[in-house]
Write the structure tokens for this entry.
Amino acid sequence: MADDRAKKLLAALRDVLSPQHLLVGDDEMAAYLVDWRGQTRGVALCVARPATANEAAAVVRACAECGTPIVPQGGNTSLCGGATPDAVRRAVVLSTARMNRIRGIDRATNAIIAEAGCTLAAVQQAALSADRLFPLGLGSEGSCQIGGAVSTNAGGTAVLRYGNVRDLVLGLEIVLPDGEVWNGLRTLRKDNTGYDLKQLFIGAEGTLGLVTAAALKLFPRPRTRAFAWIGVASAERAVGLLGFAQERFDAALTAFELLSDNQVELAVGHLPGVRYPLEARCPWHVLLELSAARQDAVPEGDLVAALAEAAEEGRTADATIAQNEAQIEGFWRIRHAVSDANLAHGMSVTLDIAVPTSEVAGFLEDADAEVARRFSGAEVLIVAHLGDGNIHYIVQYAWDRWKALPDPQTVRSEIFARINDLAMAHRGTFSAEHGIGQKLKGEMARYRSPVELRMMRAVKDALDPRGLMNPGKLLPD
Ligand SMILES: Cc1cc2nc3c(=O)[nH]c(=O)nc-3n(C[C@H](O)[C@H](O)[C@H](O)COP(=O)(O)OP(=O)(O)OC[C@H]3O[C@@H](n4cnc5c(N)ncnc54)[C@H](O)[C@@H]3O)c2cc1C
């Protein structure tokens, strides 16, 4: 960007934001210019930190007047470089962290209105203090923000029961790319008044506008929950156990996660004082949670009976049932430690694929054979939201092995191409819940049909004709 335009924009932004919320120095901007894993880096003209939707709209308007691109950023936990600016455009990074008020909770409507910068954990907490549940649960919930979760249509561990963010949003407040504010913060369950515009912004990764607040669904707070850590002999058995559990528990089945044994071992090793959860070593681990809103429901008793039946039928190899809430939290801690554990251990090439549940075992067999054939020295770790057919297929290299590879970036691209090809061949997708960002744009070009891409571009051109919102993300160049 020409220097005089940059100066003009900075002057306009100084009218909106005080100096401590308009960051221009390299050191103060550094944390905003790199992604969570340290894999994507960029540059920016400045980082703007508005505190209200009006301030955010003024920032967007000033950028629009100068033709400067904007990269919206929430908790910066994107796993596909979605919130990181690129290395050439000198965009304005718009951080929503200060827009963090809960605007209201309506218990009768079962709705909460949260500003974009509220962390997911803060929204969960606000719901609990009103005796309600906001059911979205992610490993990043302490840092990721509602605006980011909406913009990536985040999923997580309770999608099986409550759906992903798309199912949880009732309304949105959006700053459009020209700075106009659309107040769509309705909390209605039914509203058939034309196109459902909010859906366009969910999962749009900041390419169509800035989410400044969201009206979200709440649910009765579960009064009882039960949790089992179950060892199974194969992924195929785990899929069979999922069907068995769905038949027994129906809507009470809240989570059904699958981990490979080497992944459990890494996570356990990463957490001081934590032991391997089962007595016998098992190749696969299922984490099953039930919950019920009624105090007198007895999911634990039902679970004991069902597990006895499953063991008798040879569906399970070992199992342990959490005895209290602290134990349940302890088991979830192991599950949520996987990303940190993997990062500490080596280079994770993480794929976020989904296939129909019936294809899970076949996909894993094919993918493992492919990795063994082509990527010697790599280990495969599996973390799956099995209830949704969503598999984080992780090709892991210990750091010394990764650094010894002659051309690591080519290896990374090849892993993506090979494994995503297999996911598509098994009637799946190459991005189940993390989005596209910068990382998967090539896959968009490769796997999405021309007609789909044409429709997406038409939407982009209609709402952001100058391409100022998060350029270089989601859509292929
Ligand atoms: C340890 C760990 C575990 C994770 N587990 C899961 C999981 O189980 N399921 C899952 O789905 N994801 C998971 N993620 C990915 C990530 O946390 C989620 O996608 C999260 O929703 C991103 O929120 P964020 O606030 O950090 O967004 P950011 O990373 O800041 O941004 C993500 C994208 O949204 C855009 N964006 C951010 N805020 C706004 C806004 N207000 N308006 C418009 N666009 C915006 C950004 O430009 C970017 O494209 C995990 C990440 C980590 C690090």
Remarks:
- The chain is about 40% helix and 20% strand.
- The chain has a mean pLDDT of 96.
- Residues 36, 71-79, 82-83, 96, 116, 138-140, 144-145, 147-149, 151-152, 154-156, 205-206, 210-211, 339, 433-434, 437, 470, 473 surround flavin-adenine dinucleotide (CB under 6 Å).
